[in-house]
Batch of 2 targets.
Target 1
Amino acid sequence: MRERGLSAAQLAQQQAQLLGQDRPWSRVFNSICTQPHPLALEAAMQTLHTNLGDVRIFAGTAQMAQQVTQRLGALMQGPHSRGLLVSGGTEANLLALHVARLRRPDITQGEVIAGETVHFSLRKACTLLGLRLRTAALDERLRLRAAAVQALITPQTLAIVGTAGSSEFGAVDALDELSALALQQGLHLHVDAATGGFIIPFARALGHALPPCDFSLEGVSSITLDPHKYGLSIIPSGALLLRDDSLPAGLQQDSFFARTPTHHSLLGTRSGAAAAATLAVLDGLGFEGYVAQTRANYARTAYLVQGLRAHGYALMLAPELNIVCVALPQAEALAQALEQRGWIISVSTRYQHALRLVVQRHVDEAMIDAFLHDLHALAPP
Ligand code: 0PR
């Protein structure tokens, strides 16, 4: 630590110097997150000092959190659902499997079945909880189907995880089939909608042929939603929604002190800024605002796809959400060359023949044109 503190001007300079090394959004093609909506940023700045770990002091902030869980429950068609606000998709997925395990004490060596593209946060969760993750093969559109799950069910199966928008491809598992199977087998179906939860309800309203990713599917027991992705809130904003209001007893942890609240999630002391930001953007945009945002994201996704095709590139698969995978040999070497020109792009370590392009709010037509220009210069098809 410094012996003497810096002045405010020196601190600002130090911060600006380091922030200047971050990449501008105008070159970011890999991120499911984006610049938060101005409404979210403003609300967060007003509430950064709050602590949802002490709702006697921050009673108003606690109400904001409650209102967020109500709105998210309604969005997910769960009038009796219970919501827990958490730091993001990783924590929500961990808690979901924790809940599934608490509800089945009869299963001692629990197994979780998911598709091959299940997010690595569920691998972390299984490791932490001592569960075995069994991955099932996907169909030709990289979606998990019920038949592949059925073949892996054993007496130790604790849960099925369906992904509503895989991180790598934006592929949406056959959630309707998985729901029917979970009901029939009496298994917990967790839907990881971290990527697609703030796309699918609005895309369906626009007429896109996607399955619902919500509690209208009767076999769905829990859902991960991530307001800090397409929800346009600030990081860290995640949510776990449970179909019923009743929580397993083992999830509850009393604190040391009388009249302080019982904890249900992992974190204790935590800022209320995420809840305030999420409430602001949910209420500021409303369903219509998210539909408009989703329409714009699909329009720019179509613009990108059209541009790629016009330049002679082929897609790895038709995009269901706002993630486009371009089939290219040596995609990783190309991504590196593009990075030297400032572009941040992902290539899956497993599917190495595709450049993955995420169309978020910050990806506009000028950015797409500039990218296509550089792509064509480096790797003409
Ligand atoms: N489940 C799915 C389907 C996800 O896509 C993600 C994150 C998670 C769970 C975990 O969520 P948290 O990261 O909120 O805990 N998927 C992104 C990814 O792995 C995360 C990300 C976001 C990475 C922005 C980079 C980035 O710039 O691609």
Note: Residues 273-310 form the longest helix (38 residues).
Target 2
Amino acid sequence: AQVIVVFHDISELKRLEKIRQDFVANVSHELRTPLTSIKGYSETLLSESDLSPETLATFLNVILRNTNHMVKMVDDLLQLARLETRQTPVKPLPVHAGKALLNAWKECEPLAQDKKISLENLLPKEGILVSADFDQLVQVFRNLLENGIKYSPPNKTLTVSCQAIEQTVTFSVRDEGPGIPKQHQQRIFERFYRIEKHRGSDSESTGLGLAICRHIIRNFGGKIWVDSPNMDGTPGTTFSFTLPKASPEAEEENSK
Ligand code: ADP
């Protein structure tokens, strides 16, 4: 029996080593693309002395966009690392989900206005309390809303609703976008996974948003999943996640 245990440990070590190697390879690859672009444009700026002001501005904008992309990727990676090693304390507190949603929407609004995408907020007016962390719940809503805006065509609506059954609340963020084919639905929660046709379509995309959402939700004992087409059969995507309900008494305890 001892031999089997030792063998099992080695294969587990090998599996972890493979995950680590894949991760390093992925990060290097993802950072290399913007770096190559920054290098190329900087070299051109240095070697060409007679660029028009318009061309100069265009090149500098490319450099800035790629730099911003790298900053976002490094920030997301750091957050993912903190979530994975649980360095970010996860002390669940009673949180007003409606307030978290409104904060998230405020952050997405400029993007939404550009595409004339509106929010239909179906969360109960009297409020709903869940057991989580306010900032992290804002981030989950923000990532899901941002995706809904990014991948939908203009003039569409995002619908956020929730359903409480016993001690669990299920939230849903629904869009009228292109949908996610079945074969990608499990994989989009993996780090860096992006559907091919969405790759490089915008500099904000890192392929880390849903991996972060999954970590956050799991840390609070919930789960997250995707349905596409939507449950009612309409084209689009619905992301749903669960969180434990918090009682008003717990909130009073907390505010004492
Ligand atoms: P990012 O959006 O930064 O690429 P995410 O982890 O948030 O990374 O999403 C992973 C991939 O899942 C996206 O690249 C996209 O291909 C797909 N995806 C996510 N949300 C949607 C959506 N609402 N509609 C269609 N595709 C989506």
Note: Residues 34 and 146 are 22 Å apart (CA to CA).
